[in-house]
What we know:
The structure is a single chain. 75% of the residues lie in helices and 0% in strands. The protein is built from eleven helices and no strands. α3 (54-73) runs antiparallel to α4, α4 runs antiparallel to α5 (97-110) and α9 (168-179) packs antiparallel against α10.
Amino acid sequence: MLNKIIHLAVSFLLLFFLVQSARSVEGIAEEKIDIEVLYLPSSEFMRLSSLGYRNLASDLLWFRAIQYYGGYRLKQNDIRLFSHLANVITDLDPQFVSAYKLSALVITEDLDNYPEGVKLMEKGIRNNPDDFWLLYEMGFLHYLEGRDYAAAERYFRLASKLPGADERAARFAADAAAKGGNIESSIILWSELAENSDNKYIRELAQHYIEKLREQQARTGDESI
């Protein structure tokens, strides 16, 4: 009984501490204090102070991060501390897939920091190598933001090979290959879809692109399809 009471007391104290730590972010947003990232709790500090409740700590900080971003959308504060928050959150809970995806989008688009967004997604993929959506979204990050079609093709291909993968990954891999000038690779990818897809529309679409790419190959010089 005594052990149970002690355990509950520690849990409540931990919860109070984590909430107070997380509020530091909200305070920065509301008061618009000019403060460097190093004044926020570090990953190591949060790991030690969470006393094994890392997922709880991660969830609480994620809630504050969403509030912080909401303040930015309402023009109440900037979000230059968001990258640090995202890294602390995912250090505490390396399997927090949604945090990787949404944070990378915010970092890339709102902070205009494509390399940092890619770095966070690479971290997510290292920690969750079999997650389809992380690989798929990484493909889109390279495809739309970086215009790095070779990297986009690579990640779409990796996503398409996972068990139960959404067929869209293979289609975007083929499209990225063509946009990157790798016409033969695109034809091979579309051919696989034409042969293996259960969807008649996809098979017909794949055949259409194969013919278009063959025509492109036959012309003098490459043109965008």
